[in-house]
Amino acid sequence: MMLQLALPGMAGGVVGAYLLTHAPLHIIAPTVAIYLLLMGAWILRKAFHKRATPRRRRVGGADCRLRR
After folding, report:
1. Phi, psi at residue 59, to the nearest 5°?
2. What is the tens place of the pLDDT at every residue in 6-58?
3. Which label site among 11, 29, 31, 48 has the fewest CB atoms less than 10 Å from its CB?
4. Coil/strand/helix, residue 32
């Protein structure tokens, strides 16, 4: 699964870097600023948002309770 995601991710990174370096600055600068603002707000919301019910902890993808 890692290779299935890694190869398209690398291709997208190369294409994105090429487009960013060849696009006009007056379009890219506000777009990147808005994107970074939204990502920062999302991170802060997730950091300080209280959950109604606590999440169960999982270890290794399995239920952490031992089954007997």
Report:
1. -120, 120
2. 999 999 999 999 998 999 999 999 999 999 999 999 999 999 988 777 777 76
3. 48
4. helix
